Amino acid sequence: MNQPVVDAMSRPAVAHGFRLQWEAAQNAHVLLYPEGMIKLNTSAGEILKRCDGATTIADITVDLERAFAASGLSADVMRFVTFAVEKKWLKILA
Predict the structure, then answer these.
(1) What is the pLDDT of residues 32-54, one digit of tens each?
(2) What is the per-residue pLDDT for 1?
(3) Are 68 and 92 in contact (CB under 8 A)?
(4) Which residues, 6+ apart, have CB-to-CB distance to 10 below 8 Å?
(5) Parallel, antiparallel, or unpaired for β 90-93 and 11-14?
(6) Rounded Cα distance, 7 and 22, in Å
(7) Could you give phi then psi for residue 5, rounded to 5 degrees?
(8) How far is CA 2 from each of CA 5, 28, 45, rounded to the nearest angstrom?
(9) What is the pLDDT, as a whole number, of residue 19?
(10) What is the mean pLDDT of residues 57-64?
(11) Is the pTM of this model over 0.90?
(12) How far is the C-alpha of 1 from the C-alpha of 17, rounded, in Å?
């Protein structure tokens, strides 16, 4: 099965079987799945919580740059989303 193309207009969403939530005990966002939990770093949590299946990667990047008064985040966001799709944490909606 081919990996979906991930580009600036892709609309990522948390994949079936995973649930993103804030875990106070971990002081971090976590991705829960039936076999366990993935503790996310701050950047990964901020990206994943914006992956709602409606928002494009370009818009997620703009929102992150605005929220954190940063610029030039596009490559990092794209790299993480591509990684998360490969790990099957995210799916790309058509």
Answers:
(1) 999 999 999 999 999 999 999 99
(2) 57
(3) no
(4) 4, 56, 57, 81, 92
(5) antiparallel
(6) 27
(7) -70, 130
(8) 9, 32, 26
(9) 98
(10) 98
(11) yes
(12) 19
**Pure H helices in the chain:** 42-48, 57-67, 74-86
Tell me, what DSSP letter sits at residue 3? Answer: P
Q: Any idea what the Cα angle at residue 19 is, between residues 78 and 37, rounded to 5°?
A: 90
Q: What single-letter amino acid sits at 30?
A: V
Separation CA 11–CA 77 (nearest Å): 13
Gap between the Cα atoms of 5 and 38, Å rounded: 24
Cα distances from 47 to residues 2, 23, 35, 55, in angstroms, run 24, 16, 23, 11
Residue type, 26: Q
Residue 94: band (very low, low, confident or very high) from pLDDT cuts 50, 70, 90: confident
